[in-house]
Design a protein that fits this description.
This protein is mostly helical. Helices cover 63% and strands 4% of the residues. Helix 1 (3-19) crosses helix 13 (308-318).
Length: 370
């Protein structure tokens, strides 16, 4: 095995380890009580999207990026579309499908370039920061630090063991991130889960593995029900948020890794965006929120991943996760709170790039964040 092959293998495994937290976190968000989505079904859909679309990224786009349901849009789908707007989950998945169709059309034509330049950079940055705040808000809620209040909408909750475990999880993840460990998020989730089991706060799983539960959500989306004028803004929001998320990931990671041409354009950007678009459309078919390329792929690239072979390795690493639903289901919601807070904080750092001098720049950005 030559050095480039070894780098792709090591880098592919590293990328998997840095994004494997999504196998637990995505079902935890989408299967929040009230959405009607089953945890096992979402977990199977999450893994299927990761395996199939990461393989496509490696074999078609020939890029070393991992793909899976993205953070941010999963929270938007669960908490805003389904819970707040009372959209039934089959219809919500239908919205994701039509958003994916729009994304595909934008990606296979030059329209995407005109669209990307038409939206003011301030609004793109503000949208990322706002989604980061939403993720952090959900994490604090899962830890019991924020609770609902009829008078003030939200208030500080009872600071119990969940808040202490949040601090412990944040400390573990932050320490490992400082040492550039790919296990940072997984170690944080695992540590809090073990403590919860030892405390008897949540029961240990009766079994560790099970047969994948795909049938409960596979092709259960409502395509016709989603074709309502009232839902058009939702579809557009999903499509364009996904598009700009993808563009920022490809541009940012490729630039940091030196995978650009002489003009600074990322290698095979068009092919990567096409895979990303199909990840959104395909996720709706199997029962998940939109899929997207993961910025965590930079960790694998730094470990030597340079070609599509690394993405193939990452996809194969996800395959065993199909059978871990009982173990994932035994992870308490507050165990994922540190991950939500840290991912949210990372997304919120885009506020540093906001232009806030003039009122016409400040107000739209502020409203978008809020």
């Amino acid at each position: 095995m030559c050095s480039s092959d070894l780098g792709d293998v090591v880098g592919g495994v590293t990328t998997f380890l840095t994004m494997a937290y999504i196998v637990v976190v995505n079902p935890g968000i989408l299967a929040t009580p009230g959405t009607g989505l089953p945890f096992d079904g979402v977990l199977g859909a999450t893994v299927l999207v990761a395996v199939v679309m990461t393989l496509a990224m490696g074999l078609y786009a020939r890029l070393p990026f991992g793909v899976a349901p993205g953070m941010g849009l999963n929270a938007f789908l669960a908490f805003t579309v389904i819970l707040q707007h009372k959209v039934p989950w089959p219809v919500a998945l239908g919205c994701v499908f039509w958003a994916g169709v729009l994304f595909v059309l934008l990606s296979v034509t030059r329209v995407r370039e005109h669209v990307a330049t038409a939206i003011p950079p301030n609004l793109r940055l503000a949208a990322a920061a706002g989604i980061g705040l939403l993720l952090t808000f959900i994490g604090l809620r899962n830890a019991g630090i924020i609770v609902a209040d009829p008078a003030t909408l939200v208030r500080v909750g009872l600071l119990d063991h969940r808040a202490l475990l949040l601090v412990l999880g944040l400390a573990i993840a932050a320490l490992l991130i400082r040492h550039r460990s790919p296990f940072a998020f997984l170690a944080s989730i695992a540590a809090i889960t073990v403590v919860a089991w030892l405390m008897g706060d949540i029961a240990r799983p009766a079994q560790l593995v099970s047969v994948p539960a795909m049938g409960s959500l596979f092709l259960k989306l409502d395509l016709v029900g989603a074709l309502q004028w009232a839902l058009v803004p939702t579809m557009i929001s999903i499509a364009f948020t996904d598009l700009f998320d993808s563009l920022s990931t490809f541009v940012g990671v490729s630039t940091a890794a030196g995978m650009t041409d002489a003009d600074g354009r990322p290698h095979r950007l068009r092919e990567g965006l096409i895979v990303d678009a199909w990840a959104t459309l395909g996720a709706a078919l199997v029962g998940s929120s939109p899929g997207t390329a993961y910025v965590e792929s930079i960790a694998g690239i730094r470990m030597g991943a340079r070609t599509g072979r690394a993405a193939v390795v990452t996809a194969l690493c996800f395959v065993p996760c199909f059978f871990l639903a009982p173990l994932a289901g035994a992870v308490p919601a507050y165990a994922t709170a540190p991950v939500l807070v840290l991912v949210g904080a990372t997304m919120f750092t885009t506020v540093r790039q906001l232009t806030l001098g003039e009122l016409e720049d400040t107000v739209p950005a502020f409203i978008t964040v809020i």
